[in-house]
Write a structure and sequence with these properties.
By secondary structure, the protein is mainly alpha-helical. Helices cover 63% and strands 10% of the residues.
Length: 148
């Protein structure tokens, strides 16, 4: 077995200070904590709020379309849906056009909770946008979308 190459500590500092992936992950975690804290009194996490909001459509979406929108695989989406189903916030049904496919629907309880959660999200979101140093949230969103 060959001896591994040593990486200088200066390289560690360079990565710490310049790695876009690290900075985006740190920002995402900080934002998630902020929204989790704000939504906690309603019994929701930021991920659950996003999932419920993704179901707020005129027609029930498929698992695949929701997974794609939320950038998660179907297995992760299925796991995320389970507690929302148990709480009676979401219904998962077979698609009449294709019995292998599942459709996701907000229940009345889910819609009620979502309408209570939206003002909390809106206030928190406005606070976050005010904290952006450049004051241009549209630019940040556009830059982040360019990476997808």
């Amino acid at each position: 077995m060959s001896k591994p190459l040593d990486i200088a500590f200066a390289t560690t500092i360079l990565v710490r200070d310049t790695c876009l992936c690290l900075h985006v992950q740190r920002a995402a975690r900080a934002l998630a904590r902020r929204f989790d804290e704000a939504l906690r009194p309603l019994g929701l996490t930021n991920g659950q709020f996003s999932l419920l909001m993704s179901l707020n459509r005129p027609a029930a979406p498929s698992m695949g379309s929701v997974a794609s929108l939320l950038a998660m695989d179907r297995t992760t989406l299925t796991a995320a849906l389970k507690p929302l189903e148990r709480r009676g916030l979401v219904a998962v049904t077979s698609d009449p056009a294709d019995r292998r496919s599942r459709l996701l629907t907000l229940t009345d309880a889910g819609r009620t909770l979502l309408s209570s959660a939206f003002p909390v999200w809106e206030r928190t979101h406005a606070e976050v946008e005010r904290r952006l140093p450049a004051g241009d949230p549209h630019r940040l969103r556009a830059d982040l979308r360019a990476l997808c």
